[in-house]
Design brief:
Elements: H1 2-5, E1 12-15, H2 22-26, E2 29-40, E3 43-51, H3 57-72, H4 80-86, E4 93-94, H5 97-112, H6 122-128, H7 140-147, E5 156-158, E6 163-165, H8 179-193, E7 199-203, E8 206-210, E9 221-226, E10 235-241, E11 244-250, E12 255-258, E13 261-264, E14 279-286, H9 289-302, H10 304-312, E15 318-323, E16 327-330, E17 339-340, E18 346-347
Parallel strand pairs: 16-18
Antiparallel strand pairs: 1-9, 2-3, 3-7, 4-6, 5-6, 7-8, 8-11, 9-10, 10-17, 11-14, 12-13, 14-15, 15-16
C-alpha cells in the first residue's frame, strides 16, 4: 500500500533475552519461539509466539492482517478506504464493520489531537509523496489548494447504513498514521482468543509485547528505543514493559532534500508543510497501539515542552522525546525505568 510505504518512521527495537530450562517448561513456553516474518503493508512484519503448541496461531494472525490490509490499502482494487476516496463528492460508501470502526477511531483521534492528526490529510501526502521516487516540494499554489480539502470535520458518518462520505471531490483519507496501530491491536485480540499470553508483535515499528518475558516468572520485556540518527537496530536506551505497546514518530528515516533543506514526512494540516520543531522522534508507551499512533503524532506536532505536558496529563501513557541536538526527555513515569546506554545522547532530568 503506497500510503503505508510512507510510514517508515523511527522504529522500536526489541532487546529480548530468553532462557531455556525449567522456568519455561513450568510456564508451558518454548525457548525458541514460533516465528513468522512477511513483507506486508510496505514494511517488514514479524510475530513471535512463545506458548508451547501454538504455532498454528501464526496462520490466524497473518490471515487477519491480510484481511484488514486488503480493506484499508489505498490505490488498490477492492480497498474500502480507496472506494471512499474515489467517491468523494459523489456518494457515500458502505463499508465493513472493521473499516467503519477504524474510521470512527480516526475521527475521534483527529478531534482528540486537535487536528494535528487529520484523517483527511491525503491530498497533502499525495502532493509531497515523500518516501517515493516521485517525491517533490510542491508549489505554494498547489499546497494552498490541497489545504482546502483537508478538514476531518467534514467527514460524514451514517451509523444506520454504515456509510462514510467525503463531501468534496479531491478529498482523500490517509490513515497511515493510525492504521498499523489498529491492526496491531486486532492481532493481539487474535492471540488472546487463541489463549496465547506470551508473544511479540512487530508491524514495522508498532511493537506490542504481550504478557511477561519468557526469561523468568513475572519478568518484564526489555525493550530498546531506536537511535533516530542511525540505521535500524542501533538503540539509545531501553525500558522494562509488559503487555504494552511502543510506537514512534520521527523524521530521519524518510525525508526529501531540496536546495539543502530537508523535509520529513510528518505533515502539518495547518500549514501544508512538515511540522517544524526541535524534535527528532517521539516514542509512546501505552496499552493500545492505536493510542500510540495517534498520540505520537500529537506529541510530535506540539513540540517538546507542550508535548511533554500533554502526555503527562494522560493516565497510563508515557513518552520518550529525542531532540535534534541529541537530548532525551522522558515523562515522569519512565524516570526510574528508562536506561540510557548511548553516550552520544544526554538524558535531561
Amino acid at each position: 500500500m503506497k500510503q503505508w510505504k510512507m510510514l517508515f518512521s523511527l522504529i522500536v527495537a526489541l532487546l529480548i533475552v530468553t532462557s531455556c530450562g525449567k522456568e519455561n517448561e513450568a510456564r508451558d513456553l518454548v525457548s525458541d519461539p514460533y516465528s513468522r516474518t512477511e513483507f506486508m503493508m510496505g514494511t517488514v512484519v514479524n510475530v513471535k509466539i512463545y506458548n508451547e503448541g501454538k504455532e498454528e496461531v501464526l496462520t490466524a494472525v497473518f490471515d487477519r492482517m491480510e484481511e484488514l490490509a486488503g480493506k484499508i490499502t489505498v490505490d488498490e482494487p477492492g480497498s474500502e478506504v480507496e472506494a471512499i476516496n474515489q467517491q468523494a463528492g459523489i456518494a457515500p460508501v458502505a463499508v465493513s464493520e472493521d473499516v467503519y470502526e477504524l474510521l470512527e477511531a480516526a475521527y475521534a483521534y483527529s478531534e482528540e489531537t486537535r487536528g494535528s492528526f487529520d484523517m483527511t490529510i491525503g491530498p497533502l501526502t499525495e502532493l509531497w509523496h515523500i518516501g517515493f521516487d516521485d517525491a517533490r516540494k510542491p508549489e505554494q499554489t498547489e499546497i494552498d489548494e490541497a489545504l482546502t480539502l483537508v478538514d476531518y470535520r467534514q467527514v460524514e458518518f451514517d451509523e444506520a447504513n454504515q456509510t462514510v462520505y467525503l463531501p468534496k471531490q479531491g478529498m482523500r483519507l490517509d490513515l497511515g498514521a493510525i492504521a498499523k496501530g489498529y491492526i496491531t491491536d486486532e492481532v493481539v485480540k487474535v492471540l488472546k482468543e487463541h489463549e496465547v499470553d506470551t508473544a511479540i508483535v512487530d508491524l514495522g515499528g508498532n511493537v506490542f509485547v504481550l504478557g511477561h518475558s519468557p526469561r523468568a516468572e513475572n519478568a518484564d520485556w526489555n525493550v530498546g528505543v531506536q537511535d533516530p540518527f542511525e540505521t535500524r537496530g542501533e538503540i539509545l536506551g531501553s525500558i522494562p514493559v509488559s503487555s504494552q505497546t511502543i510506537v514512534t514518530s520521527g523524521i530521519y528515516e524518510r525525508f526529501l532534500e531540496v536546495d539543502g533543506m530537508q523535509y520529513h514526512h510528518l505533515m502539518d494540516p495547518e500549514t501544508g508543510y512538515p511540522f517544524d520543531n526541535e524534535i527528532a522522534g517521539v516514542s509512546i508507551i501505552s496499552e493500545k497501539s492505536i493510542d500510540g499512533d495517534g498520540l505520537s503524532t500529537a506529541a510530535f506536532s506540539d513540540g517538546l515542552e507542550a508535548g511533554l505536558d500533554y502526555i503527562e496529563q494522560i493516565e497510563g501513557v508515557e513518552a520518550i522525546f529525542v531532540t535534534k541536538d541529541r537530548n532525551v526527555y522522558v515523562t515522569d513515569g519512565l524516570k526510574k525505568g528508562f536506561h540510557l546506554n548511548n553516550d552520544t545522547f544526554t538524558l535531561q532530568e
